[in-house]
Amino acid sequence: MTTSTAVSRGAEQGTPDRQNTLAGTGMLVRFMLRRDRIRIPVWMAVIVLLTLSVNGSWEETYGTAGELREIAQTLDSPAMIAMAGVNYAGVEATTYGALMGQQMFWSTLIAVGIMSILLLVRHTRAEEEANRAELVRANVVGRHAYLTAALTVVGIANLGIGLLMAVGLGAMGVPTIDWPGSWLYGAGHVVVGMAFAAVAAVTVQITEYSRGAAGMAFGVLGAAYALRAMGDVGENVLNWFSPLGWAQETRVYVEDRWWPLLFVVVAVVLAGVAYHLSTRRDVGSGLRASRAGTPVASRALVTPIGFAMRLHRGLMIGFGVAVALLGLAYGSVLGSAEQLVEDLDAYQDMLEGMAGSAIEAFGATILTIMALIASIYVVLAMQRPRGEETSGRAEPVLSTAASRTRWLGSHVAVAIGGSVVMLLAIAVAFGAAGAASVGEGELFGRLATGALAYVPALWLTIGVAVALLGWLPRAVVLTWVIPVYGIIVIYLGGLFQFPDWLNNLSPFGHVPQMPSDDFRLTPLLILTAVAAVLIALGLYGFRQRDLDVK
Amino acid sequence: MTTAIDVTGLVKTFGQTRALNGLNLHVETGEVHGFLGPNGAGKSTTIRVLLGLLRSDSGRAVVLDGDPWTDAVALHKRLAYVPGDVELWPNLTGGEAIDLLGRLRGGLNEARREELIERFALDPSKKGRTYSKGNRQKVAIISALASDVELLILDEPTAGLDPLMETVFQDFIRQAKAEGRTVLLSSHILAQVEKLCDKISIIRQGEVVQSGTLTEMRHLTRTTVEVETAEPASGLEELPGIHDLEAQNGRLRFAVDGEHLDGVVRQLTRFGIRALTSHPPTLEELMLRHYGDELQSNGSGRHAASRGKAGETT
After folding, report:
1. Does the distance separating the beta carbons of B48 and A301 come in below 8 Å?
2. What is the ipTM of this complex?
3. Over the stretch B136-149, which tens digit does the pLDDT of each residue have?
4. How many angstroms separate the CA atoms of A235 and A255, rounded?
5. Residues A309 and A268 in one domain
6. CA-to-CA distance for B186 and B184, rounded, in angstroms?
7. Distances (CA, A) of B269 to B150, B247, B275, B280
8. Architecture of the domain whose range is B3-213
9. Nearest Cβ partner of B93 from A294, A545, A549?
């Protein structure tokens, strides 16, 4: 199993033995498009339709100039700038286009980033991991065909999104959402999508596990998001180190600058690195040969809880480091919120002393966002027992004296502990960096408590996952609804003034928003109790049902 | 004699599919019991019901005097299981997986673990992802055999093992039998079952269609003989124990019951044997007896019957 290609057409015909490293690319592209004939259109439809429907609602929701200015003012806060971006037109001169660039652009940019990473990993490393690539590569398929075909397919998906978006937005004819801006809006998505496809092209060379490759690429996406936020809130150059920053710095529909998209050259360089790295490894392996491990198990491993811990270790450490870094990043710009408030048009008329509450509101929103990110960890962790079951690895374990309750309970216990670890990491990192950047030591306690107040909400998320595992195992993936819904509510809720009950549907809506709100224990106790009931129900259901075997 | 496994009238359905259709299975304590049947006949489903991983719709299953569903944990301390398709954890070494499964079962015999690792030539320090199919099977086999348990439930355990390792496996199963353990061995390999098993049950479409000792199922152990003689051989059809006689270009092909082999060979020597090959019935041939009607009805029965190859019985 080396990287040497199958006999190329050229060699077959007796021509010089230069290998055609791209042989078979066209066929692979068609094959990948065939495999994704549902997946890619769904991604495209969701991203484009979301954009067009928001675009269609501007005039209805904010019909008058006054209403428009009012919402622009509300959104012109440090928290919104950190979360979404800058309104480059300014509050007074705000337009629908400017709001599109501030409020909508970032979210679909991240969506195309996620799509590009998932698609690229799916067609490269995941195929190698499943040993299918070996089967295909044994035919007339060149060394670089797989990567080239995958990049082409991701490119087609991104181009499709960019084109549909540009045409749709331009054709809708909403005032200030004009054709030139719409072309730029679409092009921004293509550039960001391809940048993260290139990142993933590199990470799939490094590790032999598709999950690890996707994780690394998502780490880069998270860093890109944090850098963009730090740059915008701190009013410095950090956002230029982020592909998201390049797109948002086009100041679409306001100044329509094309030149920031020239940074796409970074993506080209990354792709080149990926091609180079791919020649330095064997099919199926990573850049480093896998090392030998210990021939005997440690005492800690051979209990259900120790074993679950081992399976979750990588995710817990990786995610913990990621949220800690994000906490440090957000915390370090907390102090800038004060300066930013003074710069923002919206606050210019306000009295001195409002800066303090602006910092608190900023802190509270950031904590909610980070808690929602921590809930992604919980969802991922709770997919593990299901993955063990469907892969057939749970079967031999459950044929030992480990009971089903202990087996699933161990995964639950690790996720319960892991959720505390995530929030502790956020509490310490965001609290310390935030208190330091504001210069108020006592802020640490309030920020840290605010972070830990989300523990019961994460436990409830675990509860939902366990209940599904017990009774509707195939629906475990629906646990994703919780973080996704939470993000939609806090984000679009602010933009379109959702009623309270929509917010209350999310467990995160019941957590006191510290440090701007006061600490309240009752909702946390209720959340914990609901979580406990759901977990108990799930464990009971899991004991009653057939194991899903391969 | 006491009973290790007693199953009566077991039914298990998956949606529209009736995987087990009133299955009966009886395994005595201390015996090695062969469980034969083609893919999809219900062997693995039966085993998973015996392990309490699946719950039967109706019927009664008793394993080591316990109910496999309600007493799962207590029973699992006394048995070990090897699945037919072992999946390992990519980031755990083979040695760790052996210890994990063994200790979760209640403990491993360390000395036996070392002996098994050496005899099966397994490198226990490699990560799960890097093992081949055969080596993954070894991990599960070693873990099961190193456990001091009363009952071994083995579901096509040697799929993917090379012939050398197959021999090692057979040695250890004989040893387990000598120690008085009970073995339920599901297999495709009739030679393996023949060498190891005291009793055999043949399963078809979720039912056991035949069960008994090898002697009782004597007609299942017919040897297929192909012989080329100097003069055309005659009179064979009148000999006892001869079946399916065919003559082709001076070559004869027939099946003969083991006890009559001697008489048949005596008869053949009179015509001057030039070449003689013989092989025990393959699973394919055996199965044809129970499945032949299905194959016949779609016209492929004869074809399949004439393809019994010695290679399958290694």
Report:
1. no
2. 0.79
3. 999 999 999 999 99
4. 18
5. no
6. 7
7. 50, 17, 11, 21
8. 3-Layer(aba) Sandwich (3.40)
9. A294
